[in-house]
Design goal:
With 81 residues, this protein is of the alpha+beta class. It contains three helices and four strands; from the N terminus they run E-E-E-H-E-H-H. The protein has a four-stranded mixed beta sheet with strand order 1-2-3-4, sandwiched between helices. Strand 2 and strand 3 form a beta hairpin.
Length: 81
Amino acid sequence: MYKGTFLDTGLPGLTLTTCGLPYAVVTKHPLHMCEEEVSNELRPALDSALSFTQDAGRVVVTDWFTLEKSPMQVVELLQAR
């Protein structure tokens, strides 16, 4: 369906290009909340994703549990953008 590459070595996420547009999926621990103040662990991955896409609207943030158990939720988010 989608084939991506890892963001950067050691960062939790991947990048992909579909319909000629760059997208990124950043993963986080299921217990980490998405807060206004982004945790220091997630910041490098988000920065890398934004650098790749050049548009925050094409960055999807999800947790590992959702990605494994309900991957269609992430696919639907990618298709909606």
